[in-house]
Write a structure and sequence with these properties.
The chain is an alpha+beta fold. The protein is 28% helix and 30% strand. The strands form six sheets. Strands 2-7-3-4-5-6 form a six-stranded antiparallel beta sheet, with no helix packed on it. A hairpin with a 4-residue loop joins β24 and β25 (421-428). α3 packs across α5, α7 crosses α9 (357-374) and α8 crosses α9 (357-374).
Length: 473
């Protein structure tokens, strides 16, 4: 992109400021930092205003999500903003660029050793780097394998935004990553020739043998039991771990390394088989064909039952609304008959693992209730005023009654904390509105949306005349 040869390039930073002089960056200014231990990094200045009146220097430099450097660790800083090196980088003879004028006796830092992603030269994972951008600007970022994470949180530089990079000093994140990589290498070496305890693996190293022995025990109580039913739950394997074979579950991978959850370290083969019996028992119990498909193998029978149940309260529901929302089937998967469903927009069906016909019907009822509410527009709303309401560590945020186009009502309740939150609709069935008085209505309503679970009690709603009028009382 630029004519300058990045491999020969040196940047000299000549305008450092000393923290001890209380000479601080502007709020939000991104800076090259020299720490008190002599290492180099970078970050965006985030001052703490709480101490501004007592003259103390307080704050931190943000490098990314949960990644900050306290000002107490910093000796000097140099701004990386307002510099545009495009003209300098266009000259193929350029090998030294001064950032700020050189002065006799002034402190300066030289950065060199630049590399390019375009030449397949990537930093190591979690390495914090100084960046020369394609727009001629200067910055920093931590390499995550795909992009350079950059302050403030959730910002990043894509590879096509970075012309050249060079690693800054190691820090605790990079040190942890290097330690983890060494541990993976060590683990791989240990697992090349794993040891097998003779008592624990007296039936061999084929996990199928242990499942088959557990199946023999299950068949005495559950004649319909199969290996497929047992393996519906996350399967156990015999895998190498720390240089020895273990009974374990592989819960995915992290950077190419298996995450293994080991069964207890001191158990015998027969104890593991007994454990497998208990572990898989629920899956087997829920696979009894006579209970699961008690109304036959035609899925329309189950759907019709669910539709008629929902139609009693959601009176505007029709087959067109229901069929558009979700479709269902009964098919054989891995030699086992299963209930399947596919929501509108899904490419494939997925298994509904219910042990009884009633369980499947209830799940269809819930889908049809959601479909009905989605098809019934809101035409009016009343938000209940409330103070601070604690819901087991969450804060009540919204409590809103909504009138639907059909004249029916629902209520939307939202709660959360500083980290997460969520909301839920509750349909208010016609039965509640058959009450002669508003108080009797609340008695019925609060059985559906109880105050101990959702924050507002009868005493909070009974004297609310606006809500009473909104609900037609």
């Amino acid at each position: 992109m630029f004519n300058c040869k990045y491999k020969n390039l040196t940047l000299s930073f000549n305008e450092f400021h000393n923290i001890e002089d209380k000479d601080l960056p502007q709020d939000g200014e991104f800076c090259l930092l020299e720490l008190k231990d002599g290492s180099l990094t970078a970050g965006e200045w985030n001052p703490d205003d709480s101490d501004e009146d007592d003259g103390c220097v307080s704050g931190n430099f943000i490098r990314g999500t949960a990644d900050t450097v306290s000002v107490d660790e910093v000796s000097k800083w140099h701004s990386l903003e307002c510099y545009d090196l495009q003209d300098c980088l266009e000259d193929e003879e350029t090998d030294l660029i001064n950032i700020g004028a050189e002065k006799d006796g002034a402190y300066s830092v030289k950065i060199t050793g630049f590399k390019s992603l375009n030449d397949s030269q990537c930093p190591k994972n979690e390495q914090y780097c100084f960046l020369l951008l394609t727009n001629g600007g200067l910055s920093g970022g931590r390499w995550d394998g795909d992009v350079f994470d950059h302050a403030p949180a959730l910002c990043c530089f894509d590879p096509d935004e970075v012309w050249a990079w060079t690693a800054l000093s190691s820090d605790r994140f990079f040190a942890l990553e290097e330690k983890r990589e060494k541990e993976i290498i060590h683990e791989t070496e240990l697992n090349m020739n794993p040891l097998a305890d003779k008592d624990r693996f007296k039936y061999g190293l084929d996990i199928s043998v242990y499942y088959e022995k557990a199946l023999e025990k299950l068949l005495k109580e559950y004649p319909w039991a199969t290996l497929t039913q047992m393996r519906k739950k996350l399967a156990w394997e015999i895998v190498p771990c720390h240089g020895r074979y273990v009974f374990g579950q592989c819960r995915g991978t992290y950077n190419g390394s298996k995450i293994v959850s080991e069964w207890k370290k001191d158990g015998t083969a027969d104890e593991f088989i007994d454990f497998l019996v208990e572990y898989t028992k629920d899956s087997v119990k829920n696979s009894n064909i006579s209970e699961k498909f008690r109304y036959g193998m035609n899925v329309d029978i189950y759907i019709e039952k669910a539709y008629e149940n929902v139609k009693k309260d959601y009176r505007w529901l029709d087959k067109k609304i229901a069929d558009k929302y979700c479709s269902y089937a009964i098919r054989q998967i891995n030699e086992e008959w299963e209930f399947l469903k596919k929501y509108n927009g899904d490419k494939d069906y997925h298994i509904c693992d219910f042990g009884t016909a009633e369980g499947f019907i209830e799940s269809v009822e819930y889908d049809y209730q959601c479909a009905a509410l989605e098809a019934n527009p809101v035409v009016g709303e009343y938000a209940v005023s409330h103070g601070h309401v604690d819901l087991r560590g969450w804060n009540l945020e919204k409590y809103v009654f909504l009138k639907l186009q059909t004249g029916d009502y629902k209520v939307y309740i939202q709660a959360g904390n500083r980290v997460t939150g969520g909301g839920r609709d509750f349909f208010i069935p016609p039965y509640c509105f058959e009450a002669d008085t508003y108080e009797e209505f609340l008695n019925r309503y609060l059985k559906i949306v109880p105050g101990e679970s959702f924050g507002l009690f009868k005493t909070d709603l009974l004297e609310n005349e606006e809500l009473k009028n909104f609900l037609g009382y």
